[in-house]
Amino acid sequence: MYEVYQVNTDALHEGLFWGGCVGGVIGAIAGYKVHFRTQRQYQDIIDQIEDVTEE
């Protein structure tokens, strides 16, 4: 992005900037959803292990 800005300061760099921002936000949301789903699965496994070891 920086090199595009240095070479050309027209609407192309603005489109790349906003496209990167939108992609970053969408990627962050998807990443957090996957992270929290994985954490729930890990917690379920830990709960199951605790249930088995109590008996």
Report on the structure:
It contains two helices and no strands. The radius of gyration is 22 Å and the shape is rod-shaped. The mean pLDDT is 87.
Number of DSSP E strands: 0
Q: Low-confidence spans: pLDDT under 50, at least 5 residues?
A: none
Sketch the major β-sheet. Answer: none
Strand content: under 5%
Q: What general outline do the C-alpha atoms trace? A: rod-shaped
**Count of helical stretches:** 2
**Taking Cα atoms only, what radius of gyration do you get, to the nearest Å?**
22 Å
Helix fraction, binned, reads over 70%
SSE blueprint:
Elements: H1 2-7, H2 11-54
Please describe the structure with a list of short key phrases separated by commas or semicolons.
mainly alpha; 2 helices; 55 residues; rod-shaped
